Amino acid sequence: MTTLLHTLADYSPLLPWVLASMAWYALATVALWLALRHSGPKGRLSSLLGSIPGQLGLWLARLTWLIGPGYAALLLGILSPRLMGLSQVELGWGLGRGLLFAAGALAVLLAAGLSYRRAHPAQPPYLTLSHGIALTVLLVMEAGALQWQWAFYRSAMIEALTTTTTSSAPVYWGTWLAVGVLVVQGALSPWLWHDLRRAGLAERRVLRAALLAGSSVLYLLSRNFWLAWALHGAASAILEPRVVQPRAQGVLGRNEDQAPSA
Fold this sequence. Notes:
Layout: H1 2-11, H2 15-39, H3 44-50, H4 52-75, H5 81-84, H6 93-119, H7 129-164, H8 170-187, H9 190-196, H10 202-222, H11 225-243
Helix pairs in contact: 2-4, 3-4, 4-7, 6-10, 6-11, 7-8, 7-11, 8-10, 10-11
């Protein structure tokens, strides 16, 4: 394992961080999945995670995992804020075409969400005004955390291709390589396969995949993390409460819609 980490570090010092993040995610999700199955829908662990403190704890743990490695790498100076799209953002044509693409992508996603909602009527997305505000804030914060990890992985792939290959387009290929890495990471979670078989949960996965692809194109057009976060936050805040509504109880019972879904 040490040899593997040293080899990866020769390509880019960020690659061992990416590998460690993926390994932690796989171990944590599989362990939690097995523990919930052992506990059963009415067990103590299921009841705990179904409670408000349990849901908040899961959400905070997930955000810590999404943000922590990239933030630590940034503080240590081995992660470039420019590659992540945090600084030295172009304010000219790059921003303009990014805005045009983001507006178009959001319009397409909203049109698709409206069509879906018409075909599958559901309950109102919010119980009260305060519930709507709280859920919107949580979804926007989660969108930022997801974009942060996506930008971190993307930077690692771009840097690795820049330093080890003669590719004439390391940013392009690194961006799509990061998409592949994120797809593999998602596939390591048993909740992905569980959600894809559940109406009301699969929609979140489809939306997130569309946002991953759209964010990648947006990065290639504008190199702007903040614009990608705005697109992701707006799409998630508007669409997730309206299309992600579990309509069946699965093996994990009421906790299935609270499962980690990175």
